[in-house]
Amino acid sequence: MRAEKRQCSAGKLAEDDYQQQCTELRQQRAALRSLRPFLAALYPIPKQAQKPHDDVTICRCEQVMPGKFVRPRAGCIGMNQLKAFTRCGMGPCQGRMCGHNAAVILAETQQRHVSETVYARARFPLKPVTLAQLALSGDDSET
């Protein structure tokens, strides 16, 4: 709700226009998401891919293996703490490739359901911007 207030109070859009755009976008998102359960059922992640051996690298960006890093940290509260201890999910992919596997391994080690591990929070910026890129952007409207 706060973001909605900021958008309208910035004078960029009238309240009615803003609400109409939000409604349209939410409907589009709901339509696109409606296919997700079907795809998940049609193409499930194989069990052997979710439970790799201890010497398999699950995080290619940070070279994290279950046997060396994830299983010894079984006392972690959740994925954010595991991420801090092992750097799993802190590389260029930001956990897109390894996050689910790490969550499954952590949950299995703790004998919990994967939904209880709470997926790691994204940290911004997801794609760093250099000072040179900012300098060349040419947007002087804020100064």
Classify the helix fraction into a percent range: 40-55%
Biggest β-sheet description: none
Strands, count: 0
Task: Give the N-terminus to C-terminus distance in angstroms.
Answer: 28 Å
CATH class of the largest domain: Mainly Alpha
Radius of gyration of CA atoms, rounded to a whole number: 21 Å
CATH superfamily of the largest domain: BFD-like [2Fe-2S]-binding domain
Overall form: extended
Element pattern in H and E: HHHHHHHH
Give the helix/strand class: mainly alpha
Instruction: Assign the CATH topology of the largest domain.
Output: Arc Repressor Mutant, subunit A
Helix-strand layout with pairing:
Blueprint: H1 2-9, H2 15-33, H3 36-42, H4 47-50, H5 66-70, H6 79-86, H7 99-110, H8 131-136
What does this structure look like?
By secondary structure, the chain is mainly α. The chain folds into two domains: 2-42; 47-117, Arc Repressor Mutant, subunit A. It is built from eight helices and no strands. The radius of gyration is 21 Å and the shape is extended. The two termini are 28 Å apart. The mean pLDDT is 80.
